[in-house]
Amino acid sequence: MRHKVANRRKNTHFKRDFDQLNGLFTELETSIESSLKEDEMEVFEALDTLEENLDDLSYLTENATHDDPLRNGNFLEAELPDALRILIAGFRPFKIDDFKAHCQNLINIHGFSKFREAFDALFLHDEHLNKREMRAIKHINRYLMNRMMDTFASITTEGSRTYAQSILEVLNKPDEFFRENALAAATKDKFQKAKKLAIKAIEAETAKQIAEIERQGLPKEEMEEAIEHVKKKSSKQITAIEQMETMPKELAIKAIEAETAKKIAEIEKKELSEEDIKKEIEQVQKESSEQIAAIEQMKPIPLDYYVEAERRKMLVEAQRARALFQSYDKVADFVLNDILAKKTMDERTVTVERYLLMAEKLVARKNFDAACQIYAAVQKTPVYRLAKTKEGLSTHTREVLEDLDKLFNKVVDLRARCEQDDAYLPLNFTVTDITFSTDEKNSFVLDSEGKIVKGCSGLAGMDKTIANCQKATTSTSYNPDYMLLDEIDRNQAELASKTQKEIDKEHDKISQELEPRGNAPESSPLLSKMKYKKLIRLGIVDPPKRSEQHHKLEELIHTLKHGIQTQLTRLKNFLVRTDPPTVSRTSSILEEIQDGVTSLFDKVSSFFHDKLRSLTPSSKFNREAFFQIKEKWSSINEDNEDREDEYLSL
């Protein structure tokens, strides 16, 4: 009984100490916020880690055996808003994976968008959430943002990989694959010039016969009948030639001879000296002889040429590019619709903030195609014109948008960035590159024997295209959230039933309703508040990972102490660049926290030392209950040290 009274007294003292530290921490955030100009993300991370370590320490001093409201899963049957509150109340720092699994269970029951809407309603409008509840909120927000990023990356990466594999397969197909079509093309091409020459000769002969008839001075009716007869005969001859599957060399030579005779006749009619006429006729005859000799000695173009021509056709098939663009549009269209679906300024501003932060993270992850689609959605007119929405974005996110402008509006810079990061360039640019490379102006190269030296693979620019496709085929795969993926597919199906004009008109109408011209609502002040700005920004921060397992409670306490002191030192270092008055006050707060933490750890160590001594072997139940917390802290994630945890690697 005496021990219970003493423990209650100590718990009261602990609560008072933690309340005091929480008050100092809140004051610290306010003080830093007023002067925060640089290193914002590092400061956020330091504050976040400091706050979490303090909360972990607080949790250790509480009753570790109280009921877990998530244990039996009954909360899943509650209405979504109620289930969310129970989920948040059941947050345990040593059960992060379980907590995320519970989030996913609610998503599977209610759908991704409904879960996110309910979460945002709680997050944005409940002013009474305490620090521990906000910690749970942070983990939910981070989970949602990561699932969205993974799903977007999964869609675009799969589309890019499929396109890239198909291009490489075409380039690697054996010549035999194209042989049948190549033979057909070769047969057709071989006689094409001869056909044209023959038809031209018939047309010239027809014109000559008609002129002769007109000079004969026949009666009008008789003359018209004679001319019609000549035209019909000519038409039949031309049709016969056009329908020919082969064209003998003799016919081509005959056509050249007829054309030559016509030219000579025209020269003879000129009023020139006999010597000049002779020279012109000799020149025409020389050209004619060369043409005839070329036909007589003509070697067929090698089949290799036609094989590569067929390969070139396959490379630019429209269906392949269409499938790629559809995978990209899936993401861009979903993001656009999602932003326009937010009716309040706060919700819309937070949604755009999240998406731009996701784009920043995707660029950092080298998922340039997924990031590009988010950027494309934000740049589309219905969202681009929402000036008041963008006015409410955090300073950092407005800078992110400027960086995305520079990155995606200059292809040269984007290519350089992708090469620098050893990442693949979004393949919509590869589609354009292939179109230019395979243009008929870029001829295949033949050697003196008429054999292919450079086929499709050797066309200008194809080396970079091949290298980019190879990178795309080996890119990292991501596991999508299938509930979100289903919603994205449904959104795409709905849009597919409308014309682009209808979609644009609908989006423009919604945009005008959200921010009417000349009467736009006030921008949201939400992201000017440290609490919201920091929490959303932390959604793209990879949580710290544990570098070792704590098999002793003393080790855990030591790690927490070291972690808190490390973050306090980091924060002190960040203050060097701020104004002296702010430094003075903020430094004073940090010193108070430092003193409070030092005193608190002495008390915590003493508390657990006394508690362990009081638990005799006879009090087996109490001993096991007490050690539950130690086991939970020390055993979590032992099989996988790379999974998410709450501790810094120190």
UniProtKB/TrEMBL annotation:
InterPro entries: Ras-like_GEF, Ras_GEF_dom_sf, RASGEF_cat_dom, RASGEF_cat_dom_sf. Pfam families: RasGEF. Residues 499-516 have a biased composition (Basic and acidic residues). Residues 499-525 are annotated as: Disordered. This is RasGEF domain protein. Residues 273-517 form the Ras-GEF domain. GO terms for molecular function: guanyl-nucleotide exchange factor activity. GO terms for biological process: small GTPase-mediated signal transduction. Keywords: Coiled coil, Guanine-nucleotide releasing factor. Residues 255-290 form a coiled coil.
